[in-house]
Each structure stands twice: as C-alpha cells, then as structure tokens.
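fold-stage: in
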Amino acid sequence: MLRIGLIGCGRWGRHILRDLLSLGASVSVVTRQADGAELLRAGAAAVADSVAALPPVDGFVVATPTSTHAAVIESLPAGAPIFCEKPLCDDAGRARRLLEIARDRLFVMDKWRYHEGVLALAAVARAGELGPVLGLRTTRVGWGHDYADVDCVWTLLPHELGIAREILGRALPPRGAVADRNADGVLGMVAIMADAGGPWHVAEIGARSPERQRTVTLLCRDGSARLTDAYADHIELIPSPPANGKADALPPTKRPIAVTMPLLAELKVFVDHVRGGPPPKSAAAEGAAAVETIAALRRLAGI
C-alpha cells in the first residue's frame, strides 16, 4: 500500500487526510495538536509529533501554516516527492532555496488548476471560441481571515495566480497593486498583471466583504465567459454588446460542467505520481515564481 506522510492536520489538513484515505493511501500524520486519538479513529495509520518519528513513507503532503512551509520542506528527507499547500512559502529568497534542494520532487497544491470551471474557461481561451483573449478578471472576497501567521494576500492571491496560469497558459508579470489596509494590517489587494501588448489579469482579493464571492471572468474580443461560484455547475458564455450604441442584453448561454472536488482531483494526481505516474501541475519553479510575483505586488502596494 502507498504510504504518505501528512505534515500538519488542522482544519484543511483533515480534508486532505480524508481524501488521501479515499484514494487508498496509508497516511501517517505529523501534528503537535493533542488530537492523536481522534486522527487514528479517522483512519490515520500513525500519529507522530515530528517528521523523524514517522514510519517510512513514499511521499509527503505539507499542510502546515504558510510561514512554516520552507522550514518543513527543508527538514524532509531527500528522495520522496513533496506536495505543499500554496503558497510554497512567504519569502522569495527561501523559495529559490527550495528550488535548489528539491526542484524535481517538489510541487504546489494549486487546486483551482483542477477545478472543472477553470478548465472549461481554459478550453474556451485555447480554442479561440470567443475570439482572442483580452484579459482575465478574478475576485475572491469574504469576511475575515482565519490565519494568524500571514495576511490575506499570502493566502488568497496564490489562488488567483494559479487560475490565471491555467487559463492563460503562462504567468503574467506584475504591473501594479493597491492594498486595502487599516491599523490592524492588510485586508485586501487589487493587483494588475499584464504582458506588454498581450493579455492582462486584474485580481481582487479581500477579507472585509460581508458577501462571499468567488468569480472568474474571461474577457475576449467577441464575448466573455465566466464562472460565477466555486460550486457552480456551469460556466456562462456572454456575447459582447456593440462598442457604440445600446443593445438589449442577451441571456448568457450556460455550459454544464462536472461538479467534482478539485482537492480530491489534485491529490489523486499526486498519489498516482508517487506510484510512478506523471507529475502534478505547479512544479516547484512555478510555485517559486508565484511567491516572487506576490512579493513584487506587495512592494508595488507599499506593503
């Protein structure tokens, strides 16, 4: 049986444990929380308080707080593949160091690159179905921020960068950013990425919207396509109005998509990779590039 070491098993890590078990893996957990008996009842094969105390494993999944990712990855034994929650870390210099020590076996968990709605928008873009791509607008806002170690830019913006990479086929360079902040810290950001003369990406993320919103809108010459929610069962295709003059709005065409869980999809790819299959999306180099982009946007926003 395939053996996976899960480093960290908090709120999100428990979802990872559940899905790894459903994929037939034997999962040994490293956690410092006093919940070992509960994790064993949930199906963990073993619970340890350190990586050194783990039984032998074939691969690692890192689901600890963002600020600890680099130290955890650096502590793992050489050889086994590593799947790390995004972002890879919160420091561009350390991200480059992680490339040096684990480039070919380190991957980032960009679950939105496995989301059926994002994949459907990527197919529209690649096929030129609505004409050439002009830009991408993504929104990820809600109320509050659950992580004490880093601000919401580090936890929310990596999702948007992964979505853009999947739909546009490449990362775009940072061009500008403004931060939403108060005396307590950073509450959001509007970021602009763009190629010279090519497509652009405007991403809005924030932690003080009373309404939760997750939208992705692909803007093309002849129309737009959008995903209206993370759990939507379709994307919408909308023709463009005339550039000058008023026209009646046409109802969007709804294109069905499968409703599957992207976390399970990406974990399946990783488990299959550990067994000898193709690697997951978002290799270490792409994860490090995302960290550098976020660091550059923070500088542009004066953070």
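fold-stage: in (second)
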Amino acid sequence: MSEPPESDTITRNAKSNLAFTLMDLPEERRRHMAQFYAFCRIIDDIVDEPVMTDPERHAALDRWISVITCRVQATPGIEEEVQGLVREMQLDTQPMLALIEGCRSDIEQVQPRTREDLLAYAYKVASCVGITSAAVMGASSAARDYAVALGYALQLVNILRDVAEDCHKYGRYYLPAEDMELFGVTLDDIREQRYNYRMRQLLAYEAALAEKFFGDAEETYQKLSVEDRNALIPAQAMSLIYHTILEKMQGDEYRVFERRYGVGNFRKLWFLLRARIGTVEIPVPSLADWGFLKGNNEKKKD
C-alpha cells in the first residue's frame, strides 16, 4: 500500500480550522488545497521551530523561495508537491512570496506602531493566503477583495485570541503601539496578564476592526457570481467559525489571559453546512437538544 502524499499527512496532523473545512471540496481541489495548506504550515513552522537558529530559519525560507519560483530542483515529497502545484495551476507566486516575507518578519519581530503597520503585516500572512486559496479553490480574480478582507478579519481574531501565547511563547506583540497608548495599556500589562478595564477596552477596539472586515468580506461575497460563491464555501465556513470565536471573546469580555477560545467539531460541521446553503438564518441547535452528542465535540477546542 503506497504512502499518502506528505501534504495529506501535514494537513491531517495540523487539525486546523482551514484543514477541517476542506472536506467540502471536490477531490482534485481538496488535493491542491492540501498541498497549499501544507506549504503555509511549513513556512509558519520554520519561524516558530524552537530548535532552529535564526540563520537556519532565513536559509529555510530562502530555500522555499527558490522552490516556488522553480529556480531549483524540488526534492521528493512536499517540495515536489508544491512546485508541481505552482506549475500545474500556473499560480501567481507573488502572494506566496509575500507570505514568506511576512513570516520572516516574525523572526525578529517588531511591534507594529500603527494600525496601518498591523494591516500591512496581516495582508502578507493572511490576506495573501486567502488570495492564493481562492485561486486554488477555483474562484475567479473577482474574489480577490473578498479574500483580502476576510484575511484581515481572521488574522485580527487570531491576534486577539493569542495575545498571551504570542507574548509568553514567542515574545511577540501584535497590538499596535498607538492603540495601546490610546487606552493606557503597556507591554508590561500584557507580560503580567493584567486583566482590567483598560485592557478590555483595547481588545474591544481591535475587535471592532475585525468586525468591520468581516462585514466587508460578507458584502463582497454576496456580490460574487454563483460559481465564485460555490468555490469559496470553505472560506465562508472559516468566516463563520472565526466570527463565532470573536463573538465568544466579546461575550466573555475578552478573558484571553485565562482561556483559549475555539469552536467544537459539531459546530464546525454546522457552519460548513451553513456556508453551503448560503445566508439562510437557521438557529444553531445546542448540544442540550442532542443528547447523544452531549459531552462530545464541544470539549475539543482548537
């Protein structure tokens, strides 16, 4: 029995929200998205891998630049898969290159000074992922604005949710310095996990920006062709999942130092269905109404 492609193994082991939504795609699109997702996962892991030195990280990222621009012969495995994907689909590699440079900036991260600085970073590490994902999933170039707006929204939710982890695990701060100054929050407040009124106001301020981009993405999505909307069902499911995470944080007054917010698998499946049937508002059943599922998936958080 042959071994599964390396991209499948990476995607399956990641257990991410994006990987979860790919089940909705036709087989070929799913294979292509697994290859692209595996590329994104590897780039992110290079920057975060604790055993690598900074020169090793830069060298590994440079190697991937050469792979996706087809300047070197890819090694068997994931390099070969990603290089084949670029050639087979004739992908525009600029968003992929921007992703690499965005992740590279995290090696020696500098806190963004302004919201514009933050969005420039988010464009590289999230919106560019969305641009290429939309192409791989079969959407037309008309979906670009949707991908950019949704990328901003998802990255802002990640930043809000991971404030404590980014600080203590990686020594990184993504909340803009000007916004922190506006609400009287310091880096020491984050380091010491000081949960107070000023911190809540700051996080709510950033959450409002995320809400704006969720709204922009939805408005753009509704104007796309039926073909593009169908191609983007996994992306719409991601929007529903992450907006729910944002709502959980809002309802809980942003207790990001105490818990990590997520969505259980049952609810993810529901959102995937919601994305498929469109914008019809159907009440989401609670697990209390489904006795046989009680205590199952809601305990599993991302």
